[in-house]
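Hi all, posting the design record for the shared folder.

TITLE: backbone redesign
STEP: 1 of 1
STRUCTURE INPUT:
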């Protein structure tokens, strides 16, 4: 396992500290590249991420009750679908940004710097 995780966009030199609990194959995109992604897809991703997090938190808080409930199977399936949709869209955004970066939209916009007055 490498110490740091590179931004998933080829040629990008930014790296991130590996956090405890990160999967071996975890993928990260740096903020500058992320902002090159299609806005509508990023907005949608935010929604899907929120949905997937809802299941995570619910499971953390109510694990015992859910595990004994007849709805366990349904809960698990819905959670899987939410996570899969979120990951699939992330992959599409990655593909979108990879292409843009390769075709010379290379300089991802920085956050606007404050100009001295
Ligand atoms: Zn990057």
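Okay, here is what came back for every position:
SEQUENCE:
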């Amino acid at each position: 396992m490498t110490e740091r995780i590179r931004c998933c966009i080829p040629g990008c030199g930014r790296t991130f500290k590996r956090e405890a609990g990160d999967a071996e194959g975890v993928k990260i995109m740096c903020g500058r590249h992320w902002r090159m992604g299609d806005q509508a897809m990023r907005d949608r991703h935010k929604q899907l991420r929120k949905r997937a997090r809802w299941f995570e938190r619910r499971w953390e808080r109510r694990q015992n009750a859910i595990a004994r409930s007849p709805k366990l199977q349904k809960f698990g399936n819905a959670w899987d679908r939410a996570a899969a949709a979120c990951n699939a869209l992330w992959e599409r955004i990655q593909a979108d940004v990879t292409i843009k970066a390769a075709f010379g939209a290379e300089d991802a916009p920085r956050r606007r710097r404050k100009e001295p007055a």
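COMMENT: The chain has a mean pLDDT of 90.
Let me know if anyone wants the other runs.
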